[in-house]
């Protein structure tokens, strides 16, 4: 078998998973279509409820054998289908967290017949009790004011004060606006900040992250930036091209700067003249 790692395959994940050996993936991190009717260049987000749930169960059953015994899974979902899909996964794995991603949607506008939806739901699942998890890699540093408030003797030498705090299960990270430097041409692109947190916490260095719905390639970019390998699948050729360009940009050497001209001092100028 040719090396299947660090590739974005432009094909249906259900077919492409045959490329990936069983028990070879440390982390499945994926953002499947939410079935909200968005246009991804195909009908993957425009199914009936029954078809969508049946399709979801099919790819879950095809993907889970690829995980290592101590592997984990993160899945982005909408509140509309997270209850049903969480039940599917609970029958196959152990649920560790329901993470709420607060997208920091502006307060203006929104629904007038219900409360506006401003979050995504993320399920964190593991295969067994000794799953890989590196909390120290994703702790959030305390600010100087907090550290100063903890100067009493009972806090001296406390590791947690130096390494930072647990990110908890409510992540307030802005969605990517059109003017954001990270933004590319994809309607539901996720911020690198969120994806890198998952990769660092749940995939060991040089491990493998798999994304069945690669989209614009954020999972692949995060994996490479964090020193991990990846494998991913994406149906839309335009998105595959975007992902490959983002990855190529990571590998490209920084542009060379022209050497700065040395400015001679007036004394040097007079001496040479």
List keywords for this structure.
273 residues; disordered C terminus; alpha/beta; 9 helices; 18% strand; 8-stranded mixed β-sheet; Rossmann fold; 29% helix
The chain-level structural class is: alpha/beta
Can you count the helices? 9
CATH class division = Alpha Beta
Please report which band the strand proportion falls in: under 5%, 5-15%, 15-25%, 25-35%, 35-45% or over 45%. Answer: 15-25%
Helix content: 25-40%
Question: On the 0-100 scale, what is the average pLDDT?
Answer: 88
Number of strand segments: 8
CATH topology: Rossmann fold
Radius of gyration: 23 Å
Number of domains: 1
In which order are the strands of the major sheet placed? 1-8-7-2-3-5-4-6
Helix/strand order, N-terminal first: EHEHEHEEHHEHEHEHH
The name of the CATH architecture is 3-Layer(aba) Sandwich
Give an overview of the whole structure.
With 273 residues, the protein is α/β, with parallel strands linked by helices. The chain has one domain (7-254): 3-Layer(aba) Sandwich (Rossmann fold), CATH 3.40.50. The protein has helices spanning 13-16, 49-63, 82-90, 144-149, 159-163, 192-202, 218-225, 237-251, 266-272, and strands spanning 7-9, 25-30, 67-77, 94-102, 119-126, 170-172, 208-211, 229-233. Strands 1-8-7-2-3-5-4-6 form an eight-stranded mixed sheet, sandwiched between helices. Strand 7, helix 7 (218-225) and strand 8 form a beta-alpha-beta unit. Residues 266-273 have low confidence and may be disordered.
């Amino acid at each position: 078998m040719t090396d299947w790692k660090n590739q974005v395959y432009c094909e249906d994940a259900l077919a492409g998973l045959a490329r990936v050996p069983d028990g070879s993936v440390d982390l499945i991190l994926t953002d499947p279509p939410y079935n909200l009717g968005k246009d991804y260049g195909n009908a993957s987000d425009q199914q009936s409820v029954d078809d969508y749930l049946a399709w979801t169960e099919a790819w879950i059953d095809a993907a889970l054998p690829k995980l290592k015994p101590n592997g984990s899974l993160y899945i982005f979902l909408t509140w509309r289908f997270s209850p049903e899909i969480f039940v599917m996964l609970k029958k196959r794995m152990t649920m560790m967290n329901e993470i709420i991603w607060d997208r920091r949607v502006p307060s203006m506008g929104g629904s007038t017949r219900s409360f506006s939806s401003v979050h995504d739901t993320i399920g964190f699942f593991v295969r067994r009790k000794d799953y890989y998890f590196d909390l120290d890699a994703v702790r959030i540093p305390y600010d100087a004011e907090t550290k100063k408030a903890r100067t009493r003797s009972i806090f001296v030498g406390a590791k947690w004060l130096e390494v930072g705090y647990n990110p908890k299960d409510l992540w307030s990270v802005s969605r990517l606006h059109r003017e954001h430097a990270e933004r590319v041409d994809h309607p539901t692109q996720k911020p690198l900040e969120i994806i890198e947190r998952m990769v660092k916490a749940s995939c060991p260095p040089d491990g493998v992250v798999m994304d069945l719905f690669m989209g614009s390639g954020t999972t692949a970019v995060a994996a490479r930036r964090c020193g991990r390998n990846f494998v991913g699948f994406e149906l839309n050729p335009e998105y595959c091209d975007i992902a490959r360009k983002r990855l190529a940009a990571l590998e490209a050497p920084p542009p060379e700067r022209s050497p700065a001209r040395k400015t001679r001092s007036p004394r040097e100028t007079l001496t040479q003249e």
